[in-house]
Amino acid sequence: MSRSRPHVSVLLAALAALVALGVLGACGRSGPAGGGVVDDGTPFGRQAAAAAKAWRDAGLGARWSDGFVPLEPLSVEPPWIEDGTLKASFYGGWIRAATFPDDAGSGVVRFADGSTLEVPLVGARTAVGQLPARSGACPTDSGSSECRWVTLTAARLGTTTLGTSRGEASVPAWLFTVEGLSQPLVRVAVAPSAVTSLPELPAPGAGREAGIVSAMYLGPVDGTTLAVDVGTGSCDTGPRGLVAEYPDLVVVGGAVTTPPPGTACDSMLVVQRVEVHLQRPVGTRPVIDAVSGQPLRPAPAAPSG
């Protein structure tokens, strides 16, 4: 099946080993033996503590290695290139469907290491209700006043491949035939009660510590040295990596020197690689971004040539 999202692999689950909390370039502080959250009083310390708390409040520590924690959207869109108007209709919730049965039952998630997890499923009708809600005016083709609906004509229970905290997994999914498209719209069929969602931290400007920039990707890992790609402004200088270690996870971010007030600068995002140093190897601990609380994925390979 053609997929509209990148193929990814991820770092996995918790390590039962005591490590210390530290910030690159500053003296470290010992983390609590029970895995609690430490705030060392610095802006990054506060931000890292908030990310770690959100992670634990979401129950991820317990379910990261034995539950179903998706790291990608639960809807897999078809290639909209066959009818670009339908993409706008989908995001606007202009979706209509035949009268599908709503039989549920159970299914099995199969992980890359061969392990499996039995999960409850939702029926096709319920899965349609989990697609985007309707908003705004219905899109139309140029020169036409006719609403362009995303029309779902048939539903078949199958599987899709999804990135999870336990690697790529084969997951039960509803495959909906879309009128006018050759490939289906896919919606994961696992019931919400069996899905552990990633935490959502406050958006930038609504609770984020000033001067902290986001870690975007994880580069090579060499023992206790992690390469991290951080997102900076095009006029920011001196990017440096920041890290806080906990027994169950590693929180990373960055800091920069911003230009003087009044400096003319565009708003381009620049991705720059920095390094952070741990007191112990990362092992199987998740590495998460201090700003978003999301786990880092490996950096995309540079294009050849």
Characterise the protein shown here.
With 305 residues, the protein is mainly beta. Helix content is 11%, strand content 33%. The chain has helices at 43-57, 60-63, 84-91, 124-129, and strands at 20-21, 29-30, 75-76, 95-97, 106-111, 116-120, 150-164, 167-178, 185-188, 212-213, 215-222, 225-233, 237-245, 250-257, 269-277, 287-289, 297-298. Strands 3, 4, 5, 6, 7, 8 and 9 form a 7-stranded mixed beta sheet that branches. Strands 10, 13, 14 and 16 form a 4-stranded mixed beta sheet that branches. A 4-stranded mixed beta sheet has the order 15-12-11-17, with no helix packed on it. A hairpin with a 2-residue loop joins β7 and β8. The radius of gyration is 22 Å and the shape is globular.
How many distinct helices?
A: 4
* Spans of at least 5 consecutive residues with low confidence: 1-37
Task: Output the radius of gyration.
Answer: 22 Å
Give the H and E element order. EEHHEHEEEHEEEEEEEEEEE
What proportion of the residues is helical, as a percent range?
10-25%
User: What is the residue-mean pLDDT, rounded to a whole number?
Assistant: 82
Outline the biggest β-sheet.
7 strands, mixed
What best-fitting shape do the alpha-carbon axes yield? Answer: globular
